UniProtKB/TrEMBL annotation:
Pfam families: DUF58. It comes from Geothermobacter hydrogeniphilus. InterPro entries: DUF58. Residues 58-277 form the DUF58 domain. PANTHER family: BLL2464 PROTEIN, DUF58 DOMAIN-CONTAINING PROTEIN. It comes from the Bacteria. This is DUF58 domain-containing protein.
Length: 311
């Protein structure tokens, strides 16, 4: 199983609470928006602005120019005159960080586990939400469980999310178990759609294994009432085979040899990943959602502080 590291230490296969807290300590005011610039640099698509969440205020008689979608039909029927609902804007936007801890995320050939990189970026998102005065919540999902943290204000909410990410049972799995999900990704996203409040910013970090039409349907429905951002986590080996040669791989139980000298096979491998990436990008373009890539050999925090997020 993955070994926990001591506070402040850095590991390619685990995260620590001290490390995630330090991300917030290092975040200068000038970089509060850098996460969005990083997304733009990595191929982001700006979403249409839906505004912050809306809370019900009162009912009054309908006036010309009012939105017909807000008509209160029960009050209208009771009083015999058309009435409409009034809303006021919530002062803090709910930000929900949805983080994939399924087994394929615990993989890397270079850099760190995809799950480690995603957790680091999720921590950055949480600290940014705090700096903006937004409410921060979480949705952590894996083969073993789904954990929902209702968006709340303040540093306490950020620390609660960080603790839950570090303590998630996925980090303590026995090694070499096959990926046998109890439910498809589409079912998990259906649950996410049910818990996300209208007007929320949903930042979904995943490798999007099991992407299919049902996943697209759930995300499209989620995107109707929320602002959606997809962060695609991947290892460089998933995008391209290593240099031409012969390699021996092992999962700890079995050995496997692969030969990467066939040019046609290399092109087919690259095209398969490119087509899968294109599906994600096309979906985000159609939905006017934001898209960001997070390779496992790129430290999103170091890239941010070094100026790599600019543009």
């Amino acid at each position: 199983m993955a070994t926990r590291v001591s506070p402040g230490a850095s590991s390619p296969v685990a995260v620590s609470l001290a490390e995630l807290i330090a991300i917030g300590d290092r975040l200068p005011p000038s970089r509060l928006e850098a996460g969005r610039r990083l997304a733009a640099k990595q191929g982001g698509y700006l979403s249409r602005f839906r505004g912050r969440g809306m809370e019900f205020a009162e009912v009054r008689a309908y006036l010309p120019g009012d939105d017909a979608r807000n008509i209160d039909w029960r009050v209208t029927a009771r009083r015999g005159k058309v009435h409409t609902k009034l809303f006021h804007e919530e002062r803090e936007r709910p930000v929900l960080v949805a983080l994939d801890y399924r087994r394929p995320m615990f993989f890397a050939t270079r850099g760190r586990f995809k799950a480690v990189r995603a957790t680091q970026l999720a921590a950055l998102f949480a600290w940014q939400a705090l700096a903006h005065g937004d409410r921060i919540g979480g949705f952590l999902f894996s083969e073993e469980r789904n954990l929902e943290l209702r968006p709340q204000l303040g540093k306490k909410a950020v620390l609660q999310l960080l603790r839950q990410m570090v303590a998630d049972p996925a980090w303590e799995r026995p090694r070499h178990q096959p990926f046998e999900p109890k439910q498809r990704l589409a079912v998990t996203l259906q649950r996410l759609r049910r818990v996300a409040r209208p007007g929320s910013l949903i930042r979904l970090l995943s490798d999007f294994s099991q992407w299919d039409e049902r996943v697209e349907l759930q995300l499209a429905q989620l995107n109707r009432h929320c602002e959606l951002e997809l962060v695609h986590c991947f290892d460089p080996l998933e995008a391209d085979l290593p240099p031409a040669g012969s390699y021996r791989l092992s999962d700890g139980l079995r050995d496997l040899s692969i030969v990467t000298t066939d040019r046609a096979a290399r092109r087919a491998y690259q095209q398969h990943f490119a087509q899968r990436r294109q599906l994600l990008e096309d979906f985000c373009r159609r939905q006017h959602a934001r898209f960001m890539v997070l390779p496992s050999d790129l430290d999103p925090i170091e890239n941010l502080f070094s100026g790599g997020a600019g543009g």
